[in-house]
């Protein structure tokens, strides 16, 4: 008898627990659904904005790269396009990582100017090689730090490459904050490069600024 | 088998070198109270960095004086068409290993792609000279022993920069060994001719691989402040993306014309309810 009462007690407890948990679950699910629908709506807006932005950005990029004109003209035109579609200050901050916070205001400014210069130099330096490029949007997906627009980049005499563009609205408007070519993130690679340089130079941002000066003026 | 064993003789030497390197050249971790520096140290996951950098310098010298000039010559002298077909043939040789790995990774569609590529390209593609299969809907993909081990949940381990082979890790190193053992082309044949052919294949593979990244690698090493760290980062990310691609490749194995049991069952069940 004792056993039975104990077990029925146990059953009741379990059932009440279940009821509570079911109620809680329903309440949670309701909140979750609300939250999810809110996020989904926001994400849809962001996805649409990112897709529209990337469609135009790709048109501008291909227009310059595949357009007529000398390599010098193209490089100048490409610089203007990049400044319009890339969130350079966000990328620059990311690449400096934790050292951004420890740098003085003056160092931050110097670094950012040089980073901008070197970035443009590296991209536009090979503008002639990009001729004949064709970029087509495949799909989009949402990440916590923005919308990833996946494209296929086809160049003459090269296998098609998968290139993801991370578009963030952090600055108030959609802008590119990372380019992920065949799974390798350009800004992460750059951050690891700077990080290794800094750790081998006593974490001195001044040393990094000097190295960037050399790169910018070489 | 005797031939393949003989070819594997360098493996213990390599292991001994790595071990020796590991004993004499460990990176000094940053002070424990510097949390940020410690996080960076863990992220780099390169406890053998000093040794790795030595091997990087050795390979870099080898590349600078031998492989890079040879690859430039290969690119400049041999016409693009011939180089493309050579690349196809070399790729075709690797397909059996690729197929075994696809199967070990439990990726049936990828295994199907590899199998059909091997069958079609070896026959209609004239021994792999022409890549007919890609156009027929059996595209190429990456698959090797290191990826298989990764999908089985084997942890990657610390970064290793190996002499000759370059960026690696204990997992990828073991994967390379497994691939070599699984390669049917390493099973048979002995004697001078087979040996020479296999050396020729290794040499040609090196030229092919290096010549395809001449400009990219020049650009990477030219623009990096620390080329060693940049290559470490690129290698890790690329490896991870190859593994993710294999993991996420869950294409249906059922042909499009075949009605799946669920689809067939659904209308019948609804009918049942109506009645």
Distance between the termini of chain A: 92 Å
Main sheet: strands, sense, barrel of chain B = 2 strands, antiparallel
Count of helical segments of chain A? 7
| Count of alpha and pi helical runs of chain B | 14
Question: Which two protein chains have the largest interface (Cβ within 8 Å of the partner's Cβ), and how many residues from each?
Answer: A-B, 23 and 24 residues
Q: Topology as H/E string of chain B?
A: HHHHHHHHHEEHHHHH
- What is the strand tally of chain B? 2
Distance between the termini of chain B: 69 Å
Helix/sheet category of chain A = alpha+beta
Multimer state:
heterodimer
Radius of gyration of chain A: 26 Å
Question: Strands of the biggest beta sheet of chain A: in what spatial order?
Answer: 1-2-3-4-5
> What would the principal axes of the Cα set say about the shape of chain B?
globular
- In the sheet with the most strands of chain B, the strands line up as 1-2
Helix content of chain B: 55-70%
Instruction: Give me the count of strands of chain A.
Output: 5
Determine the mean pLDDT of chain A. 83
Task: Give a short summary of the structure.
The complex is a heterodimer of chains A (218) and B (275). Chain A is α+β, with helices and mostly antiparallel strands and 218 residues long.
């Amino acid at each position: 008898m004792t056993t039975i009462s104990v077990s029925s007690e146990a059953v009741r407890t379990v059932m009440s627990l279940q009821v509570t948990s079911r109620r809680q679950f329903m309440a949670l699910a309701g909140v979750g659904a609300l939250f999810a629908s809110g996020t989904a709506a926001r994400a849809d807006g962001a996805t649409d904005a990112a897709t529209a932005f990337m469609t135009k950005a790709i048109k501008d990029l291909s227009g310059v790269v595949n357009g007529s004109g000398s390599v010098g003209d193209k490089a100048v035109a490409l610089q203007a396009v990049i400044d319009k579609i890339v969130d350079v200050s966000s990328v620059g901050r990311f690449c400096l990582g934790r050292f951004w916070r420890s740098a003085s205001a003056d160092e931050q400014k110097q670094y950012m100017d040089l980073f901008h210069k070197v970035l443009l130099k590296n991209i536009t330096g090979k503008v002639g090689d990009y001729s004949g490029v064709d970029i087509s949007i495949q799909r989009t997906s949402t990440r916590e730090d923005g919308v990833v627009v996946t494209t296929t980049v086809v160049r003459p005499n090269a296998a098609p490459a998968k290139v993801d563009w991370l578009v963030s609205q952090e600055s108030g408007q959609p802008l590119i904050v990372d380019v992920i070519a065949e799974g390798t993130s350009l800004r992460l690679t750059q951050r690891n490069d700077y990080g290794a340089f800094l750790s081998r130079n006593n974490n001195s941002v001044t040393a990094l600024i000097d190295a960037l000066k050399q790169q910018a003026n070489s | 088998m005797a031939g393949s064993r003989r070819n594997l003789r360098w493996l213990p030497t390599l292991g001994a070198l790595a071990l020796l390197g590991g004993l004499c050249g460990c990176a000094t971790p940053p002070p424990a109270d510097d949390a940020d520096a410690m996080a960076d140290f863990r992220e780099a996951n390169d406890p053998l960095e000093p040794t790795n950098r030595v091997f990087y310098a050795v390979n870099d010298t080898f590349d600078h004086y031998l492989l890079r000039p040879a690859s430039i010559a290969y690119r400049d002298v041999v016409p693009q068409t011939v180089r493309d077909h050579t690349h196809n043939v070399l790729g075709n040789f690797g397909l059996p290993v690729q197929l075994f790995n696809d199967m070990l990774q439990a990726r049936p569609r990828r295994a199907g792609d590899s199998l059909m590529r091997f069958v079609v390209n070896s026959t209609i593609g004239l021994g792999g000279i022409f890549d007919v299969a890609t156009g027929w809907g059996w595209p190429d993909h990456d698959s090797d022993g290191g990826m298989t081990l990764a999908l089985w949940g084997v942890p990657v381990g610390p970064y290793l920069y190996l002499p000759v082979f370059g960026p690696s890790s204990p997992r990828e190193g073991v994967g390379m060994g497994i691939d070599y053992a699984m390669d049917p082309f390493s099973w048979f044949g002995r004697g001078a001719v087979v040996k020479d052919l296999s050396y020729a294949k290794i040499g040609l593979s090196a030229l092919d691989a290096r010549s395809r990244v001449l400009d990219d690698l020049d650009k990477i090493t030219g623009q990096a402040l620390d080329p060693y760290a940049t290559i470490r980062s690129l290698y890790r990310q690329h490896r991870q993306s190859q593994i993710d691609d294999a993991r996420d490749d869950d294409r249906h194995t059922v042909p499009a014309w075949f009605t799946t049991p669920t689809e067939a069952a659904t209308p019948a069940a609804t009918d049942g309810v109506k009645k």
